[in-house]
Design goal:
The protein has about 325 residues and is an alpha/beta fold. The chain is about 35% helix and about 25% strand. The relative contact order is 0.19. The structure holds acetyl coenzyme *A (ACO). Acetyl coenzyme *A binds next to helix 2, helix 6, helix 7 and strand 12. It comes from Microvirga aerilata.
């Protein structure tokens, strides 16, 4: 059977850093409160010229370089984002152009913070079907542009960034068939819309709007939903927490990550945490964490890696990848 193998990973963070100390000057908050409740120490904020597509292009270029490939080798571009440059055209087609591609297909996918898991799962199904050969799977976001910078309950949590994977269809038995995306599990339940949403859009205020969140409510649901989809992935593949080499969750909040790992019986040393460095970057957070753990030598070829996320909708999902 065909598997979607990871060929490369890359990421990009905007130039400007915003520390918790900087935030103390903007809203009534403190470094200690933010670190204790979220684990976040700093985040990066895009300048005007650093749009979501610009961040996505840089992450995609890094992933292609890591794979030793060029844009000519890619025939599918999927960009997970909730903060596109424009309502349309898609950010993915802008990234495609930025990479110098005029061939293949490109589209955006919107599942908020679960966007990257949805995009990996979608790309995997395209590649397995035989319709496409190599996919750039990108998570790129500029949540700083949809934050209410006077609302301390949300503005301290998020940051901007992008990350990308190159997935390649490989066929046949043997070692390559045991690698790649082994399984993925996607869920959603729209009844929870008002727990986490943006209060604007073409069908409502006709403005972009700002992010609204009932943080404590989201927290309450998050750990259980994460555990469910991760268990689904273990069941589907006959694996368990013991066999997992790395747990790479959506980087929203250190307490959610730690509580989820604990509930699943995943040892703390297997958990990859980068939220301290970039805050919650929504769909970009998993590839940012994957890139960090690959580049610092933690993720090695053959390692079993679980990714998972929960986000607005609610949406949630997992994917188990043999690197
Ligand atoms: N600085 C200082 N104090 C603050 C801040 C702040 N930035 N924000 C809120 N507070 C205050 C509140 O006003 C409240 O004060 P009060 O007790 O006088 O009313 C107090 O701190 C406690 O507020 P809670 O909201 O109860 O704090 P909690 O411990 O729940 O932490 C947090 C808040 C960090 C948002 C937490 O609920 C959380 O992490 N939720 C999950 C949110 C999340 O991760 N969402 C993203 C997932 S999906 C996605 O990625 C899009």
């Amino acid at each position: 059977r065909t598997r979607s193998i990871v060929r490369g990973v890359g990421s990009y963070l905007p130039r400007r850093k915003l520390t918790n100390q900087d935030l103390e000057k903007l809203v009534e908050t403190s470094h200690d409160w933010i670190v204790q409740r979220t684990g976040i120490e700093e985040r990066h904020i895009a300048e005007d010229d650093e749009t979501t597509s610009v961040l996505g292009i840089k992450a995609a270029e890094a992933a292609l370089a890591d794979a030793g490939l060029t844009a000519d080798d890619i025939d599918l571009v999927i960009c997970a984002t909730s903060t596109p440059d424009y309502t349309f055209p898609s950010t993915a087609t802008m990234i495609q152009t930025g990479l110098g591609m005029t061939h293949g297909a490109a589209f955006d996918l919107q599942a908020v913070c679960t966007g990257f898991v949805y995009a990996v799962s979608t790309a995997d199904k395209f590649l397995q079907s035989g319709s496409h050969k190599r996919a750039l799977v990108i998570g790129a976001e500029t949540f700083s542009r949809i934050l209410d910078w006077n609302d301390r309950t949300t503005c301290v949590l998020f940051g901007d960034g992008a990350g990308a994977l190159v997935l390649e269809a490989q066929e046949g038995e043997g070692t390559s068939a045991d690698r790649g995306v082994l399984t993925s599990h996607l869920r959603s339940d729209g009844r929870y819309r008002d727990k986490l949403y943006v209060d604007g859009g073409p069908g409502s205020t006709k403005t972009t709007g700002v992010l609204k969140m009932e943080g404590r409510e989201v927290f309450k649901f998050a750990v259980g939903m994460v555990a469910d989809v991760v268990q689904d992935a273990f069941k589907a593949t006959g694996t368990s927490a013991d066999e997992l080499k790395w747990f790479v969750p959506h980087q929203a909040n250190k307490r959610i990550i730690t509580a989820s790992a604990d509930k699943l019986g995943i040892a703390p040393e297997k958990v990859v945490i980068t939220v301290n460095k970039h805050g919650n970057t929504s769909a970009a957070s998993i590839p940012l964490a994957l890139d960090a753990a690959r580049k610092d030598g933690r993720i090695q070829d053959g390692d079993l890696v679980m990714i998972e996320a929960i986000g607005g909708g609610f949406t949630w999902g997992s994917a188990l990848i043999r690197w």
